[in-house]
């Protein structure tokens, strides 16, 4: 009989632990929480363990079904609430739209335009900071993962042309910053996973009294993210001090060759228009004066806006073919992301429900901690804790657990829940320090040849 290999044995062990956590925790005596709360806690712990050591899809499926047998809700209702949530629907549509933007060539146009500005000639640190901020902006407009891929690909060619090689310090620092910018771009988007779910959760738990506008998130997160990237540039220049002598080869003539590769045709113009329209539909309800026009545009929430844009793009024809083909662009829908989102929504809601008793226990702990010292030190410690946790587990789950705590604490400590929540979004969005932190984080650690 064939003996299982070491990797197979480890996988079997992880699967056994996953099922023990998911279905066995409820048999332990409750400690400060209800029996239902113990069952829900087991599903939550099993889900985190499964995501960390096994995978994303089937552990999420098992945990969704398991939640339906904890006494929280019927299994069918749990699954229906998961996939009927606007955040899950929007994520499916926006992933298809992101694939369309990549295939249309608009990503490539924006990347090459940002890198080919003649002001960079003879100014290596302006070039460095502009590459990072440009990656942030492109990632904000489209998606941080393809933006990091695109910018990195162009940089590889540039390094080759000016004589820089793998293993040198400057390419490593610049590429690490590009990946960092890709991660931060998610923190700036109101429609990114953790922000979208956090905004919705705060609105629900506050009964509509604490509403975070899209412009508010961007107005706070974008300047903070740009400042982080500029500080990183200063650290590379004055602390790490890599050799940048060969950046003198970034001549106006060389930058012109990059600019000459930019091609804007019908498809790129249509994709750019779709991006602009989506952003306008997101922002107009926040800037228009109250009235019938603002009320009309207010109906275009993120799901409605994205479905409308995809419908119009599917209707339009270029050279006899539809501009947007959902069948082909659906290949860009990452089902691991969808299942993670779908599972985290009802599980996180169950954790914070009154019948579980978990939120009460955690709130009491945080309240006693906050009451025992300076509230600013507590806030700083809370953000650091959130940031550390998001390096090892899914930030959507962290955000959904934190929002009820933030709301309860804001009521007793007189803290603005909107400002508190946006700070928490930033802390949860900066998932970069480990390979498990995010997709872009995994990309940075996988690029050992250049980044190290």
UniProtKB/TrEMBL annotation:
Residues 51-422 form the Citrate transporter-like domain. It is a multi-pass membrane protein. This is Citrate transporter-like domain-containing protein. It is found in: Membrane. The lineage of its organism: Bacteria, Pseudomonadati, Thermodesulfobacteriota, Desulfovibrionia, Desulfovibrionales. InterPro entries: Cit_transptr-like_dom. The keyword Protein transport does not apply. GO terms for cellular component: plasma membrane. GO terms for molecular function: transmembrane transporter activity. The keyword Nucleotide-binding does not apply. Keywords: Membrane, Transmembrane, Transmembrane helix, Transport. Its main location: membrane. The chain crosses the membrane at residues 12-36, 48-70, 82-100, 125-158, 170-192, 212-240, 270-288, 294-316, 337-359, 365-385, 392-410, 422-446. Pfam families: CitMHS (PF03600).
């Amino acid at each position: 009989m064939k003996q299982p290999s070491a990797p197979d044995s480890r996988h079997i062990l992880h699967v056994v632990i996953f099922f023990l956590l998911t279905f066995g925790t409820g048999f332990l005596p409750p400690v400060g929480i209800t029996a239902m709360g113990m069952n829900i806690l087991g599903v939550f712990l099993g889900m985190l363990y499964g995501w960390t050591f096994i995978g994303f899809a089937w552990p999420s499926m098992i945990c969704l079904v398991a939640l339906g047998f904890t006494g929280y809700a019927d299994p069918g209702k749990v699954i229906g609430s998961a996939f009927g949530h606007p955040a899950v629907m929007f994520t499916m549509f926006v992933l298809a739209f992101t694939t369309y933007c990549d295939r249309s060539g608009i990503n490539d146009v924006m990347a090459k335009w940002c890198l080919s500005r003649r002001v960079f000639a003879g100014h290596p640190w302006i070039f460095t900071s502009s590459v990072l901020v440009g990656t942030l902006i492109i990632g904000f407009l489209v998606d941080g993962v393809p933006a990091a891929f695109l910018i990195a690909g162009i940089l590889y060619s540039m390094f080759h042309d000016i004589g820089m090689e793998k293993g040198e310090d400057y390419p490593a620092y610049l590429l690490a910053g590009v990946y960092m910018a890709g991660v931060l771009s998610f923190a700036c988007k109101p429609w990114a996973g953790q922000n979208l779910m956090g905004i919705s959760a705060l609105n629900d738990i506050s009964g509509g009294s604490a509403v975070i506008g899209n412009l508010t998130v961007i107005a706070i997160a974008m300047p903070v993210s740009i400042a982080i990237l500029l500080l990183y540039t200063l650290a590379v220049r004055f602390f790490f001090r890599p050799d940048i002598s060969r950046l003198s080869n970034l001549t106006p003539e060389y930058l012109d060759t990059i600019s000459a590769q930019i091609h804007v045709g019908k498809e790129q113009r249509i994709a750019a228009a779709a991006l602009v329209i989506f952003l306008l539909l997101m922002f107009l309800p926040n800037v228009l004066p109250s009235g019938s026009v603002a009320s009309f545009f207010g109906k275009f929430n993120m799901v409605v806006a994205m479905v409308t844009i995809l419908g119009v793009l599917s209707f339009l024809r270029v050279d006899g073919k539809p501009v947007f083909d959902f069948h082909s662009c659906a290949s860009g829908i990452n089902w691991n992301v969808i299942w993670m989102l779908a599972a985290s929504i009802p599980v996180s809601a169950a954790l914070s429900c009154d019948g579980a008793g978990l939120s009460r226990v955690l709130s009491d702990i945080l309240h006693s901690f906050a009451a025992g010292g300076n509230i600013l030190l507590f806030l700083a410690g809370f953000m650091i804790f959130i940031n550390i946790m998001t390096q090892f587990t899914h930030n959507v789950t962290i955000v959904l657990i934190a929002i009820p705590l933030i709301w309860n604490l804001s009521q007793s400590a007189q803290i603005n829940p909107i400002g508190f929540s946006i700070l928490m979004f930033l802390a949860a969005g900066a998932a970069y320090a480990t390979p498990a932190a995010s997709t872009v984080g995994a990309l940075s650690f996988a690029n050992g040849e250049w980044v190290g």
